[in-house]
Prior knowledge:
The chain has 413 residues and is an alpha+beta fold. It has helices at residues 4-20, 23-61, 75-83, 91-100, 134-138, 151-156, 165-171, 247-261, 273-316, 318-326, 331-367, 376-402, 406-410; strands spanning 65-70, 104-113, 127-131, 143-146, 160-163, 180-183, 186-194, 214-218, 236-241, 268-271. Strands 1, 2, 3, 4, 5, 6, 7, 8, 9 and 10 form a ten-stranded mixed sheet that branches. Strand 6 (180-183) and strand 7 form a beta hairpin. Helix 2 packs antiparallel against helix 12, helix 9 packs across helix 11 and helix 11 (331-367) packs antiparallel against helix 12. The chain starts with a helix and ends with a helix.
Amino acid sequence: MPDPLASWRHLLRQTYRGLLQHKLRSLLSTLGIVFAVVAVVSMLSIAEGAKRETLEQIRQLGMRNIIVRALSLTEAQEQSAGALLSRGLNKLDATSLRSGLPTVSSVAPLVEVRAAISAADQEGLVQVLAVTEAYRSVHDLGLRDGRFIHDLDVENHNLVCVVGVEAARVIGSEGRLGGSVRIEDREYRVVGILEERRVSETGGTVAARQTDRAVFIPLGTQPAGSGATTPSGLSEIVVRVTPGADVRAAAAVVERIIARNHGGVRDFHIVIPQELLAQARRTQRVFNIVLGCIAGISLLVGGIGIMNIMLASVAERTREIGIRRSIGASQEHIVAQFLCESVLLTVAGGLLGVALGVGGALTIGAFAGWRTVLTVWAILISLAMAVAVGILSGLYPALKAARLDPIVALRYE
C-alpha cells in the first residue's frame, strides 16, 4: 500500500521543480498576490494603529466622565445670551451639578488660562490650566514627584503649581520640584510633577488634553485679565458619575441643569466619552469592511493572474498530461498536481508579501509619523486569503487538465 505522506512529498518536489523551470514566469505570476498582501498588511496595521490611538484618546477622557465645554460665541450671540441672563459656563453650574445629580462622584471645573510663562522659550507650547483637586481623580493623573493641587490651595489662593514632564523640560531649571514659575505677574512654586502621559496630537472636540505640556494652578489664582471673561467663568466642567451609573441618563440630567441655569441658551457643549467610544467602534467596523473589500479586489486581481498562468501551463503541458494519464495517473493526481502548483505560487507570494508588508508598515510608522500596529491576526488573515485565492484560481485549470481525453492529449502538438 503506497504511503500517502511519501506521495505528497513526491508531489511537492515535482511541483517545485516544475515551477523552477520557469522562474521568471513564476515570479511575475505571483506579483499580483505579493502586492495585494503588502497592501492588506500595511492597511490593517495602519487601521489598527489609528483605532488604538483613537480608543486610547477617548479612554483618557474617562469612561465614567461627562465633559461640559463652553462654546465660543459671536458678539451677537453674547448679546442674546446676556438678554436671557446667561453668564456662560460658571462656578454656579459646578455647584448645581454637585447638588442636583445624585449619581455624581466628582465635579472638576477648569479654566484655560491665556497667560504667558516667562521661562517658556516657545509661546503656546505650554498651556496653563486652573483646576481643583478633583481634576486629578477624574482623569486618573499620576504623579512622578510631589503632590497635586489641593482644595486648600484653592481656598487660600496659594500660588503653587504642578507641571507636566514636557512643560518641566521646556521651562528649564525652574520647572523642577521646588522651583519658581512666573506666569504673567505672579510667581508659582512647583509642588508636583506629573507622570508622562502621551496623547495624540489630533485636535477636535474628542481630543484629550496634553497634560505633559500643561502647568496646573489652583482655580481662582489665575492672573488678572486671563481665562474667562467673568471672574466665575469656566472653560470646562468634568463630571464623573459613580460606578455602575447610567452615563447617558446622567448626561441628560446634566444638560437639563445647565440649560436651566443658562436660561435655555445653548452656550455649552456636552461630550460623553462612552458614546464616543461606541461610535468609534462602529466606525472601525465599517472601516474594516471597506478594507476587506479593497483587499478582496486586490487579491481577485492577483488570482486572475495566477489562473491565467495556470491555464497557459495546462495548454503548454497537454502532451505531458496525456502521457501521465496513459501510464496510470488518475484525474485526482492531475488535479492535485496543478492545484499544488497554484497554491505553492500563492503561498510563496503571500509570504513575500507579508515580509514586505511588515517592512512597509514599519517604514510608514518611522517616516510618516503614523502609529502602526502589526497583529498576528492581520498576518494570518493575509496568508489565509492568499491560500484561498490559490485554491480558487487553480481549481478550474486543474479540473480542465484532469478532464482532458488522454488520446487527444497525446496527439496534441
